Amino acid sequence: MSIKLGDTAPNFQADSTIGNIDFYEYLGNSWGILFSHPADFTPVCTTELGFTSKLQADFEKKNTKVIALSVDGVEDHKKWIEDINETQNTEVKFPIIADKDRKVSELYDFIHPNASATATVRSLLIIDPEKKVRLIITYPASTGRNFNEINRVLDSLQLVDSHKIATPVNWNDGDDVIIPPAISTEDAKNIFPKGVTEIKPYLRYTPQPNK
């Protein structure tokens, strides 16, 4: 199954480090970040889960739940979490899915045979409260993901959903945003009281709206 942007993220039931979970029930009305790892007790994955754990409080403020996946079993996951907590100076609290039968990995297209026939690649999805897939990003197994970038994209998606704007290259929370071409400049002046800066008729900026 190939999942694309805008698709509904499929539901699943699986065992995890916090017990058996139903994915939709776990997410509830929250945003979700689902990300896969090639294997437990691997160095790059250890740093990724450690850093994600340190971001968890920030994600929670943004109504976002995190859930990881590896093709290893729950007991290995729990032992690995001990290593992550020790080496990364954190406390992993989000669940890690046990996917020994690879059902979830295959459902979400996390196994790329030309990369590895058995291990999952470093795929990550951001899923909105309507269960729609809003971001898909895949790294090779050898390259750790940039979770600051994932956090940045989450900020952008949530802002775009609450206001009629887009975010420019290298945008960070608090920077000026772009007014979409579908909104006329005259209408934009009414919609965006902080002001409109027109560079070209199709390229107009406004200070970031209040969240």
From TrEMBL:
PROSITE patterns xrefs: THIOREDOXIN_2
GO biological process: one example: cell redox homeostasis
UniProt keyword terms in alphabetical order: Antioxidant, Oxidoreductase, Peroxidase, Redox-active center
Positions of the Thioredoxin domain: 3-159
Active site positions, chain numbering: C45 (cysteine sulfenic acid (-soh) intermediate)
UniProt superkingdom: Bacteria
InterPro entries reported in the protein's UniProt record: AhpC/TSA, Peroxiredoxin_AhpC-typ, Peroxiredoxin_C, PRX_1cys, Thioredoxin-like_sf, Thioredoxin_domain
GO molecular function: peroxiredoxin activity
Keyword Signal: no
Entry's Gene Ontology cellular component terms: cytosol
Keyword Cytoplasm among UniProt keywords: no
Record PANTHER family: MCG48959-RELATED, PEROXIREDOXIN-6
Entry's family note: Belongs to the peroxiredoxin family. Prx6 subfamily. Belongs to the peroxiredoxin family. AhpC/Prx1 subfamily.
UniProt name for this protein: Peroxidase
Record lineage: Bacteria, Pseudomonadati, Bacteroidota, Flavobacteriia, Flavobacteriales
